[in-house]
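Input.
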Amino acid sequence: MNFDIIFVAYNSEKWIDNCFKSITENDYNLNKISIIVVDNNSCDDTVIKLKKIKEKIGLKFNNFKIIELKKNFGFGKGNNLGFIEGNSPYAFFLNIDTEVTRYTLKNLETSIAASSSDVGLWELRQFPYEHPKMYNPVTLETSWSSGAAFVVKREVFKSLGGFDENIFMYAEDVDLSWRIRSNGYKLKYEPSAVVYHYCYKEVNEVKPNQYYNSIINNLLLKYKFGTIKDVLCGYIMVLKLLGHKGPFAHSRKVLIKRFVKHYFQVFPFVIWNLKNKRKLKDFKPNFYGYDYEISREGAFYYNEFAKNNPCVSIIVRTCGRVNVLRETLISLTNQTYNNIEVLVIEDGKNFSEEMIKEEFPNLNILYKATGEKVGRCKAGNIGLTMASGKYLNFLDDDDVFFADHIEVLVSQLEKNNQYRIAYSLAYETPIKVTSIDPYIYTEMFHNLIYRQQFNRLLMFHHNYIPIQSIMFEKQVFLEEGGFDEKLDFLEDWDLWVRYALKNDFLHINKVTSLYRVPFDRSINAERQKKFDDALISLREKHSEYFSQVNVSFIAKELSEILDSYVIKISSEVYALIKAKRPFTSKLIVWTKNIVKKLFT
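Output.
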């Protein structure tokens, strides 16, 4: 498969050597690759270095071109000029402050070849910080793609006129993505194709250009793709920012200048909107404040591959829900970690067996149907006993993993070998099901309600870890046992409480799964009543465990809870004083509630 790899350089000399070294070390036929570098009038030795690199390795590629511009035309126009110089069917736009892995191009080729014809663009996964925007963990579709690293069909890019050159920098990738989608194409996220992108010097870094351009370009995109209401909301957002100092010296002054200047840039965006009214009827972009998609928690989680590659057993409990189970298994085929076995335990008749054999021949699945109904706990224990992996993880048949779930948990457990149990974050996602066959549903929203550092005392009080979020060594199961088969509900909470008696849990601050629940209120109410009834008896059972807990654990974790309350009280009091409001009566009521919670 032929690729044109297109770079835009601007004062980029420090990145050049490692970037091109990584490309030459790729496990790919370099004669299938053309390199095109557009320099946006760099002031350093970027061009000199590029010419040396071309002289050294240029003959290894199909082509190696350097285009020197006399002016900085911006990211979008620079890429457009590079695109014109190529002729491969796939244009690979790549930032120069990157390094590809040995198998990046091979994995890209595999993904492209397997994609349906309506996919127009493939986005790569960035290391060490993955782009945090949401994507569909089943279809791998995304609503927009980062311009740092993506491949696009030449015919698609050309038909759209490339990047919008009215956008100098930032949000040009969102604009291109939305135009591709409005023309009927899909965008696909490819987690197996990794590129190291060195865009941040430190965690939570805010860059001046990114700050100013992102704000103003967000407003311009509202003119282009949004409604009058979107534009008005955009102005309110900007005006609020103008009332603050901002993150840098003279931030407000610079932002005001950019805000005034944007009035002279609005015209082409409005014209495009008017010309494409028909397309915009079917295509509805997302504006989440200054973002364009929901951000998954964990933007600055440091991604790294596991030191070792132990087998992981994923236990899937199901019960005659073939179409629901299918999505769960697809999310497992999308995993970036490859040494896994899947144990599907069906409680009852073998409804899912045929589907598994026909549709998932390449997924390492061990299937067992119990024949007679045995219950969720017994089914789970069968899976635990059959599992041969070093690590075990449950995934019920209506939940799904993001592509890096197993990779993240294994890498952290292997890195922090003082822990035998780890858990990541999960979104609780209510879904409205409109059809079972075929399985059609709508995800209503995503709630990050399971976000809690490990604390035994809180674990004894309530479960804050969804079942699919936890990975644990099989040795823990062999020592402490599996589910209590007398339970019908909250069996996972009971298991975590028992495991917590002798084990600390490693908390990983990244969303890696979706925990799906019914959106229907009546179903939820009935479901909640069963949980509440089970809660009473389980708390009585858990009271037996307190005598087994190490006293030092209790002291440490009670101290953590008290510290969090003290911090909360202090911040509340400070806020009331700062606002110059009467706070004595409020403080008394609030303190009473805190004391009541503590003693409860």
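DSSP finds 21 helices and 18 strands in the chain.
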